[in-house]
Amino acid sequence: MVKIISCKSLGIQTVYDIGVEKNHNFILENGAVASNCFNKSHSTAYAYVTYQTTYLKANYPVEYMAALLTSNSGDTDKVQKYIATCLTMNIPIEQVDINHSVIDFAPLDTTILFGFCAVRNLGLGASECILEARNNGGEFKSLADLCDRVDLHTVSRRALETLILCGGFDKIEPNRNQLIHDLDVVLDWSQSRLKERASGQVNLFDWSGLENNEQASNKFDSVPKAAKVADFSQQEKLNKEKELLGFYVSDHPLKSVRSAMQVLAPINLSELEAQSKKALLCAVVMISSIKPITTKKGDRMAIVKLEDLTGQTEAVVFPRTFEQIGSLLVTDARLIVWGKLDRKDDDELQLIIENAQLIDKVQMLMVELTIEQAVDTSKQNQLRSILQEQSGDKDKANTPVLAIVTAINNRQLVRFGRQYWVQNCNAAVQSLTTANFMAYAQPLTNFT
């Protein structure tokens, strides 16, 4: 091995780009041959970096993922993908908190605290201003307290509105709608306070004689507020988070069906690039937007925007399919979709939807087997034959099949492959029951 022990600048020199047709072999001054040194040096460096990152992810997963989210905080798609990765690693992401968040994503034992760096409309200057006020005066007790202590030229109204709507004040006041209505009133009050200070007037609340008593600690209770209003619904809160951050943080409409998703073994939308164009794909998604289209023949179709926990994609529902599932295409609807990939003229991927079902309407075919039945070849063949008979048209067989094998003090769940899914769950239950199998239908959303 030859080491570089020093280097010096030679100023501006003429250089030549020498192409090497076969081998990158160079004779060093000491007579040694550096064989393919370019390729080996790069592969060694990449291998070392891979080793380092793998070690960190395995041994310090929370810290590693927090650093990864911070370094990609400006890329919404990547942040959404890494948040989904955190969920699969059982690392919760806590929403932004005005009293605890810092600029970067911060590791907190087994969780990650959302950083100011990924909050739109906030900016580095506003983030630093908030942190400085918090470090100097302690945690903020209210929206009025924050407005009174920060520079409102740096922390704009838009920044405060974003912090409210993405949950930054939830631990102080969980009613986000109330804070939005209070904001203008509180800002007017803060501006008045600022003018009083500039003119040398002393407000009763600023009098040092009150700073150490209980009245001083509650000095913001008398700040004017708007009339009481009801809070946003949970879905409204999530929609506003998505609008302002580009993804959901406090919750996700698909989180509640994560267990069910494991049963279906669907692909994630972030994995579309790696899928075959000919394969029939299954995905658990939510519709984020719909664009209805009427063809020249007068047929109805639609272009829809789909998203899941990992990303989003565009999908097309052609007229023939639209006739069957058009009523399901509603904004925020949670669906299981089946379809195939296609590429648009600009080479972007899109999913051609061939079928869809509402998640809440999907049933599973459950078959309970004793250990004796599970190892009995004749019973296996009989079960296989019934399921194949009930599958019918494979593209229309959308009911997943699971077996629960019961042994002494043990119940093992076995998921059947897509080729054994059935078309009509009730008919399959009847056929299996007639053949002395214990079978029943179970809603997918009830699976845990």
Task: Walk me through what this model shows.
The protein is of the alpha+beta class and 448 residues long. It has four domains: 26-59, no CATH class; 61-245, no CATH class; 255-360, Nucleic acid-binding proteins (OB fold (Dihydrolipoamide Acetyltransferase, E2P)); 362-446, no CATH class. 36% of the residues lie in helices and 19% in strands. It has 14 helices and 14 strands. The chain is globular and about 90 Å long. The model has no long low-confidence stretch (mean pLDDT 84).
Write the layout of secondary structure elements.
Elements: E1 26-27, E2 33-34, H1 37-59, H2 61-71, H3 76-88, E3 93-94, E4 106-108, E5 111-113, H4 123-137, H5 143-149, H6 157-165, H7 176-198, H8 214-217, H9 234-245, H10 258-264, E6 281-294, E7 300-307, E8 312-317, H11 319-325, E9 334-343, E10 349-358, E11 363-370, H12 371-375, H13 377-391, E12 401-407, E13 410-415, H14 425-434, E14 438-443
Parallel strand pairs: 3-5, 8-10, 11-12
Antiparallel strand pairs: 1-2, 4-5, 6-7, 6-9, 7-8, 9-10, 11-14, 12-13
